[in-house]
Specification:
24% strand; alpha+beta; binds zinc ion; three-stranded antiparallel beta sheet
């Protein structure tokens, strides 16, 4: 159990960059502009453009446009969210194991 707690401490130390996290998925999509006479009306879409797709429970996902100059920053922030979520899952698994051994905390 000492080992589990030491591992948990190391995992928690990895949560220091949480301010930079961004949940969602980077997607690339073509767009219609809405003008009837435009080439996009017959399927030749504008773009593709980059968006952050943010799932919202019980609602339609939010799509946020990502300008090219911000794409790298956003990709980095999305990667941080993935790491943080993996760390949280591991810490929770350790706490579950400690509880199963009747030694939470
Ligand atoms: Zn168009």
């Amino acid at each position: 159990m000492r080992q589990l707690r030491a591992r948990r401490r190391r995992l928690a130390a990895g949560l220091s960059d949480m301010e930079a996290l961004l949940r969602g998925t980077v997607v690339s999509q073509g767009r219609r502009c809405g003008k009837e006479s435009c080439r996009c009306a017959s399927g030749e879409l504008h773009g593709p453009y980059t968006y952050l797709n943010v799932p919202r429970p019980g609602r339609r996902a939010r799509l946020v446009y990502v300008p090219t100059r911000l794409a790298e920053t956003v990709a980095g922030q999305v990667a941080v969210a993935g790491r943080v979520e993996a760390l949280l899952a591991e810490i929770s698994a350790i706490n579950t194991e400690l509880l199963a051994r009747r030694a939470p905390g």
